């Protein structure tokens, strides 16, 4: 397993040599390079060399750039206002924003006087790299962002790459309202004349810190399944670090085949008073969420590391590490949520509930995960809730290890607690949930209010050293199986299982796998 945190921080330098040799340098270019230097430049210059650099964002915003052009900001410089460059590149010749010289990332401070520090609207083929963005006003306001890209009454907006940005201290609205709540980085598509979307949106290697309400989030103006009629394609959110986020950390909206991987979320829902979670999709199909670490989500108004939400089909959560989240590991909820797969993940010391299964969700598969519950934690292994829209149906729970040194329960509820803290008035059982299959799961520790048939495999799974995980993936070897573990080869076969375990070892086809996240033979 790669040293996850080390590789991530290698991609997130906040200071040091700014690389002028661009990531797209292998592509042919015929454009012009323009230099910007707020310390020694002048807007009367032509901008074509370091000595003739422009000075201001106003000058940059007044120019319409073309395919292959580069806009180079001097490292260590600061700009007040909004970066709103014009023009579009084309295939093989994007317009690139980069830095030159040595020092900190060039800082663009919107100071609450603009809706966003960086704005791209109805433009194609842009790559924005190695900038610092902040947007702090005297008070919180709606529609305040760090970076915002918009496809509005435009059609398909293509090839937008945001890489290695440091987005911090955005004091947008903490109230959950679509639109209007604040974001560190947001993409949005809509319009009443021309249906619009994105194709090839990449957000990679960015560092977000103290952004309110949210971190990296999409917004589609189309409601429910309408957002999927013309979905955004090739959306990738990769290797980002999100710290001290006011509400939701990463939210995918209106996409097909989005990939969310190798991100670290350290602290979400830190300041909002409404419902928020770590990483989740909405109105999206075929989303893959993998190799992420989520910790420190605050409170039980949701408060989970992960969420498979409404109007989503075929969402897969695999090879993730969740720990120390107040609201638990996973929420699966809302109308037309169908086909969620949760496999080969590790949860350590999540609280309140491991799974909240809420509403008319369908066709859930939970297999080959490890859940560790430390001493002093009393939680719902599963909390089943329903109401007017219906209850969960068709859940297959197989080959998991529940290692509980605290207390684990199985509960149901129809209403929330009057304390308005996100918890429920619960009782033992499944409520009106139907067809819950619990098969070949190993339970070790302390359990109450669980069905008798769940006790079929009450035994020590013989993990190497459970409960010792910390930050990062490289300390999780304690969740592997010992050589004498009764879990080896004792699981039930699952088709289309992804081909590998948590550590990358192959999972066999046509024979019984091991129980847990480690495939040992």
Tell me the fraction of residues in β-strands, as a range. 35-45%
Secondary structure: helix percent: under 10%
Largest sheet: 18 strands, mixed
The termini sit apart by: 19 Å
What does the average pLDDT come to? 94
Shape: elongated
Class based on secondary structure composition and strand pairing: mainly beta
Number of strands: 41
Helix segment count?
2
Total count of domains: 2
Rg, Å, rounded? 24 Å
Question: Which helices and strands, and how do they pair?
Answer:
Blueprint (H helix, E strand, L loop, with lengths): L3 H7 L22 E4 L20 H5 L2 E2 L4 E5 L3 E3 L5 E2 L7 E6 L6 E3 L8 E4 L4 E4 L2 E4 L9 E8 L3 E8 L2 E6 L11 E8 L6 E8 L2 E6 L1 E7 L11 E7 L2 E3 L6 E4 L1 E2 L2 E3 L2 E5 L10 E4 L5 E3 L2 E5 L6 E5 L7 E3 L2 E3 L4 E6 L7 E3 L2 E3 L4 E6 L3 E6 L2 E4 L4 E8 L7 E6 L2 E16 L7 E5 L5 E6 L2 E6 L74
Parallel strand pairs: 1-3, 2-5, 3-6, 4-7, 6-9, 7-10, 8-11, 9-12, 10-13, 11-14, 12-15, 13-16, 14-17, 15-18, 16-19, 17-20, 18-21, 18-22, 19-23, 20-24, 22-25, 23-26, 25-28, 26-29, 27-30, 28-31, 29-32, 30-33, 31-34, 32-35, 33-36, 34-37, 35-38, 36-38, 37-40, 38-41
Antiparallel strand pairs: 38-39
Walk me through what this model shows:
There is one protein chain. The chain has 521 residues and is mostly beta strands. It folds into 2 domains: 1-284; 299-479, no CATH class. 2% of the residues lie in helices and 40% in strands. The longest helix has 7 residues, at 4-10.
